[in-house]
Amino acid sequence: MDLNQALEQIGKAPTLEHLQALKVQYLGKNGQITQALKSLGQLPPEARRERGQELNTWKKALEEALQTREKELRQEALKAQLERETLDVSLPGYAFPAGGLHLTSLILGELVNLFRRLGFSVVEGPEVESEFFNFDALNMPEWHPARDMQDTFWVDLKPPFTLQGPLGETVNDLGGAVLRTHTSGMQIRYMIQHTPPFRIVVPGRVFRYEQTDASHEAMFYQLEGLVVGPNITMADLKGAIHELARGLFGKEGKARFQPTYFPFVEPGAQFAMWWPERGKWLELGGAGMVHPYLFRAVDDYRARQGLPRVYEGMTGWAFGMGVERLAILRYGIPDIRYFYQNRLSFLRQFR
Predict the structure, then answer these.
(1) Could you tell me if 149 and 272 are in contact, meaning their C-beta atoms sit under 8 angstroms apart?
(2) Average pLDDT for the chain
(3) By C-alpha distance, which of 11, 21, 134, 132 is closest to 73?
(4) What angle (nearest 5°) sits at the alpha carbon of residue 335, between those of residues 330 and 336?
(5) Considering all CA atoms of the chain, what is the largest pairwise distance in Å, rounded to the nearest integer?
(6) Cα(68)–Cα(169) distance, rounded to whole angstroms?
(7) DSSP-derived pairing of the beta strands 198-207 and 121-122
(8) Which of 170, 303, 306, 321 is closest to 245 using CA atoms?
(9) In this structure, what are the phi and psi dihedrals at residue 59, rounded to the nearest 5 degrees?
């Protein structure tokens, strides 16, 4: 065997497969070096020692050459793979369309954040509501003319579906089930669950069976506010609405109140806000002091559930406003139906 020739073959092996064949040829079980080592026993002792040292030197040289060439071939293979699979990052990528929040969500988020900064908690309630919480407990019994102004989607609840009250109790026996016509039902639910003082806002969808036109829609969003505690006055309500006006329209924003009637507040008022940029008043919602009937209804309900009566002597105020109405007035949107027609050309303006 010629060592130099073997090393040259190894150094020029073109592939890992070829290199493996050379390894088997020289160092395998039946390879030339292995067979030569096995035949050492046939030599005289002196020749055996000298021949053995020579073969071990050759074996070490071949192993080192094989390792070096294997490393080189693997690096070459990796380089070739990287060149084949290279991604040209200089090419322009595909721009996926960016989404955004719906205009209603943007306005609602702005309103909620304003009240959070004033220390209000945010709560939500069921959209399918008991007639008791949606009307009766809010001082609107069946014969009350105010109910005529809220044509209602009635829901036929069949077993095993039930309506749950604020304490987890079944309330199917408290009148029919409706898609809530306002978020005010959460005033009653929250007062039953909690003891004053507290400050909450209630955002959510409401439903009214109305003829759809440019200013009316069967589904829209409201934001309800409620504050209850000892010695709460109309001045507290006016202060909160003034802060809301400043938050929405800047330092020059202000609010005004006009007396009106709502069955669940006494006294009641419509409130409008001054928009400095356009120099006009925007009528946004209704408000007032919580009617004593609501406190009695809540305490009566709590008593039936074995809870103490806690609302005697309490006062509070509440307000409600339409979220889409604020957006319509702020941006001059001519038709409320635009909000829910999924017209991207309209929605992208507010992204």
Answers:
(1) no
(2) 89
(3) 11
(4) 80
(5) 127
(6) 80
(7) parallel
(8) 321
(9) -60, -45
Task: Name beta bridge partners: 275.
Answer: 280
Name the residue type at position 59.
K
Output the pTM of the full model: 0.72
Higher pLDDT, 53 or 191: 191
Per-state percent for the chain, helix, strand, coil, to nearest 5: 45, 20, 35
List of residues 6+ apart from 109 with CB closer than 8 A: 101
Residue 78 to residue 76: CA distance in whole angstroms: 5
Could you name the CATH architecture of 103-350? Answer: 2-Layer Sandwich (3.30)
Domain boundaries, the chain: 3-84, 103-350
Q: Which of 278, 218, 288 is nearest to 253 (CA)?
A: 278
Q: Which is nearest to 32 in space by CA: 4, 53, 11, 3?
A: 3
What CA–CA distance (Å, rounded) separates 50 from 307? 106
Q: What is the pLDDT of residue 232?
A: 96
Q: Are 289 and 316 contacting, i.e. CB atoms less than 8 angstroms apart?
A: yes
pLDDT at 174 over 90: no
